[in-house]
Automatic annotation (TrEMBL), chain A:
Residues 577-597 are annotated as: Disordered. This is RNA polymerase I-specific transcription initiation factor RRN3. Belongs to the RRN3 family. One of its GO terms (molecular function) is RNA polymerase I general transcription initiation factor activity. Pfam families: RRN3 (PF05327). InterPro entries: ARM-type_fold, RNA_pol_I_trans_ini_fac_RRN3. The lineage of its organism: Eukaryota, Viridiplantae, Streptophyta, Embryophyta, Tracheophyta.
TrEMBL record, chain B:
The gene is BnaA02g17360D. GO terms for cellular component: RNA polymerase I complex. This is DNA-directed RNA polymerase subunit. The keyword Nucleus applies. GO terms for biological process: DNA-templated transcription initiation; transcription elongation by RNA polymerase I. It is found in: Nucleus.
Length: 633, 197
């Protein structure tokens, strides 16, 4: 046997130079020490365990000894027994790379790889120990401003990731065991520090490595879940409370090119308003930023397209049906902006597919079933309700996305609108007599979506005769007995009608002027308990650093030139342009700056009770400066 | 290569009502969740399966979620290397004390120096780690070689094989097969000579 040869003639084991002789000797010693436990003489073994303890301020010789011992152990893994050598193993697994010098780190990592690959028993412990290094100890976190500490962090993490990769190469099933552990060890949300961000940095590193090929889905799920949790931790309503002049199409937060004092003041006020939520804000912001950076690097590597599928899966799972999230969804927006032709189009198509899916529940009357089937009917009814809100959410996302995505070509927006219009028209033809808003929620969502998108894109759509002709069925939809103009959110309807009239799309009677009403009983009815009637997920991103990534690709309301806007060169009054034969070179003319200053948008607050507040709508709050240069779309 | 077997099984797969639109997909999904895991009932690690749906109707379970059970007939490819059986895999790493092998692309196998026969000596050739046979110079084990090894034990949880190169019929697959071919030829030649004589 090979081993017996070692015990008698160490020089035959290696065909290398004399320098290795002492290593062989140590290997012998270590193996003998390990074996001795079973013979009942544990002296040498105890010595061995003792020499593994790290003493603070130990000198170079002690470290060197430790290295030789670790190397010898690496070669003797088969001699380690999980029961007899428990002390040794717990000593090994209790060590931390953060405490070790580089050459000792290497030796320990070598031992871990050996342990994990040679025997299945230690695989889980090794992986757990490596994952435990993702978050540095407190003393490192406190000193992260120092260059030396930053370098150490880089060293340690590169060793850790290198080890995980090597183990995965030797043990192909290691990644599948690794992923659940990653989920388990993920730090919870902490009001004190942002360790979550550091942990997620490591997750992204894994995603970029070969392990990402198998674990991508799960990694993105983990990240999305944390983003959502952080998002929900923040009471956004509480923050927006301060800015009382909130209303549809009124004031919007913009990252202006001339960042004056007022804008800075707003960010500060917003960050301060949260009670103890400062850290959560920062964590969420940082997490979004590293996610954006990761998506960008995926794009540079040319794999954003594949990553997008997994990303969308995670989005569908965690974000799509969470109506209170304000920021997390921008991850999708950013991914789309990086690659509009593939990801940008895919996102809208997938949302549209959800909306058009054949499992869509058709409106039915509430029928009471016999008690025998009551359980089944109850769960089926719940399923129906969930599906409806699912579809409504998808439609709200689609609408907000088509309206706000600066990178979306108008042809694509027009195509999507056409499909929506056709679908709503089909519905009109096939619907029943029930006139309650709750019975036709999906239809009203669809109509509101069309109107919302047109509020932003009306001018560009009407400029192209083909797109204009595709919208012809819209008139009959809006005039249908289901009366979407009465049921949909009044602020959206009012703005839409105003633009439709000015653009000459069709003429409507004056019965639809709403007196600046934000929402109504009917819109609340169709919106349901989650208030999906006032759900505009891609309204301005409210986090500072995240917003800087988003704003170059984002259409702010102030950038939109509504059709009723008067142009300097236009001699005719807005009211007379009913036939809508607009000049095609209108887009090159400057719009009326002051008029558009007064119009911006934000998601309305859920309870808009005070009339006094509403009166303040038209006044500009001193805190926010609007953007200077509107562009037309 | 031993340890692989093909079996037929009759299974009952329970499917959630929402998946009733595409039953085959749901069944495949259920069975896929068992892949590369050791199953006591099947007595082996499931590597691949092929299903056909047998029943026309299905029984609905009573309860809040009305799952329904579909009878299927499946042929299953199972892997269960018993001790002392032979398996083959590709060498991925060699060190003076161990040889790491990957079997069937998913199972990690390790042969430690205690289980490598005397014939093989560790050498460093051209910067590459390898084990060379002292009796047959051309019998070399290095990274990328297909290795035939005997199974000592199989850890079902992690799919880890502890292997041995002690028996004479273990080693580089190519070399062993060439040996056995030559032996066959020699036998034939011997036989001819004896016939003539």
């Amino acid at each position: 046997m090979g081993a017996s040869e070692v015990l008698t003639d160490p020089s035959s084991l290696y065909d290398v130079g004399n320098g290795e002789y002492s290593d062989t000797y140590t290997m012998l010693t270590v193996r003998n020490a390990l074996a001795s436990v079973q013979n009942g003489e544990s002296e040498r073994y105890e010595e061995l365990v003792q020499s593994m303890q790290i003493i603070k301020g130990a000198d170079h010789a002690v470290w060197a000894d430790l290295v030789t011992i670790l190397n010898a152990l690496s070669g003797s893994v088969a001699c380690i027994d999980i029961i007899h050598h428990r002390k040794l193993l717990s000593s090994v697994f209790g060590m931390s790379l953060w405490d070790l010098k580089p050459h000792v780190m290497e030796a320990l990592v070598g031992l871990l790889i050996s342990l994990a690959a040679t025997s299945g028993k230690y695989l889980d412990s090794c992986l757990n120990m490596l994952i435990g290094h993702f978050v540095p100890p407190r003393w490192v976190i406190d000193r992260l401003s120092q260059r030396r500490v930053i370098d150490q962090k880089t060293d340690v993490l590169s060793q850790v990731h290198g080890a995980i990769l090597k183990i995965s190469l030797l043990v192909p099933l290691a990644p599948s065991r690794l992923l659940p552990m990653l989920a388990q060890q993920m730090p919870k949300i902490n009001k004190k520090d942002n360790v979550v961000v550091m942990y997620v940095e490591n997750l992204f590193k894994l995603e970029s490595s070969p392990i990402g090929q198998v674990g991508s889905s799960m990694l993105f799920m983990m990240v999305m879940e944390r983003l959502r949790d952080l998002d929900l931790e923040i009471d956004w309503d509480d923050i927006l409370q301060d800015d009382s002049s909130r209303g549809m199409f009124d004031m919007e937060l913009e990252d202006t090119m001339n960042e004056g004092e007022e804008v800075g003041l707003f960010w500060n006020l917003m960050y301060q308003n949260t009670s103890g939520g400062n850290v959560v804000f920062e964590s969420l912001d940082k997490l979004m930023v590293i996610s954006f950076d990761h998506l960008e690097s995926c794009n540079l590597d040319g794999r954003l397209d594949q990553v997008f599928e997994k990303l969308f899966g995670a989005f569908e799972n965690f974000i799509l049906n969470t109506y209170k999230s304000k920021v997390s969804q921008f991850l999708m927006f950013y991914a789309c902006s990086l690659d509009p032709e593939n990801c940008g189009v895919k996102f809208a198509s997938k949302l549209m597919d959800i909306f058009l899916s054949s499992n869509k529940p058709r409106p039915t009357r509430q029928v009471s079933l016999s008690p025998l089937c009551s359980n089944v009917s109850y769960s089926l009814h719940n399923t129906l309700v969930l599906m409806t809100t699912w579809l409504m959410s998808a439609i709200a996302y689609l609408a907000s996305y088509l309206a706000r995505g600066k990178f979306l070509p108008i042809t694509y927006v027009a195509t999507m609108l056409k499909r929506l219009v056709d679908e709503c028209a089909d519905y009109c033809g096939a619907c029943n007599d029930d006139i309650r808003p709750e019975a036709h929620q999906i239809f009203y969502s669809g109509c509101q979506a069309i109107m919302y998108v047109l509020c932003f894109r009306m001018r560009s759509i009407l400029n192209v005769p083909l797109f204009r002709s595709q919208l012809i069925p819209l008139e009959s939809i809006l005039m249908h007995r289901l009366n979407p103009l009465m049921v949909c959110l009044p602020s959206v309807v009012a703005e839409f009608l105003k633009q439709a009239k000015a653009g000459g799309m069709f003429v409507v009677s004056d019965a639809f002027i709403f007196d600046d009403l934000l929402e109504s009983e009917l819109s609340r009815a169709f919106g349901g308990p989650e208030r999906l009637d006032t759900f505009f997920p891609f309204d301005s991103c409210l986090l500072k650093s995240s917003n800087s990534y988003i704003s170059p690709n984002f259409i702010y309301w102030s950038m939109v030139r509504p059709t009723y806007e008067e142009d300097d060169d236009d001699e005719e009054d807005a009211e007379i342009i009913v036939n809508g034969d607009e000049e095609s070179d209108e887009e090159e003319e400057e719009g009326d700056l002051d008029y558009s200053m007064n119009k911006m948008s934000i998601t309305p607050k859920h309870s808009f009770k005070n009339k006094m507040e509403r009166d303040g709508l038209l006044k500009m709050p001193s805190m926010i400066r609007p953007s200077i240069s509107p562009q037309s779309f | 290569m031993e340890g692989l077997k093909l079996t037929n099984a009759e299974l009952l797969v329970y499917i959630h009502p929402s998946k009733s639109g595409n039953k085959l997909k749901a069944i495949c999904r259920e069975l896929s969740s068992l892949l590369f895991q050791y199953d006591e009932i099947f007595d082996g690690v499931l590597l691949a399966f092929d299903v056909t749906v047998k029943s026309k109707g299905a029984k609905i379970l009573a309860g809040l979620n009305p799952y329904f059970g579909v009878k299927v007939e499946a042929s299953l490819l199972l892997f269960n290397p018993k001790p002392n059986s032979l398996v083959e895999g590709k060498i991925v790493k060699i060190s003076p004390e161990t040889i790491h092998v990957i079997v069937l692309g998913f199972s990690a196998a390790v042969v430690t120096d205690i289980d490598i026969r005397e014939e093989f000596k560790y050498r460093m050739r051209n910067g590459e780690d390898c084990f060379v046979s002292s009796s047959h110079k051309r019998h070399v084990l290095k990274v990328g070689t297909m290795l035939r090894l005997q199974v000592e034990s199989f850890d079902e949880e992690v799919m880890h094989i502890a292997g041995s190169l002690l028996p004479a019929n273990t080693g580089c697959v190519k070399w062993l097969e060439k040996q056995s071919e030559e032996a066959l030829h020699m036998d034939r030649d011997d036989h001819k000579r004896r016939k003539i004589a």
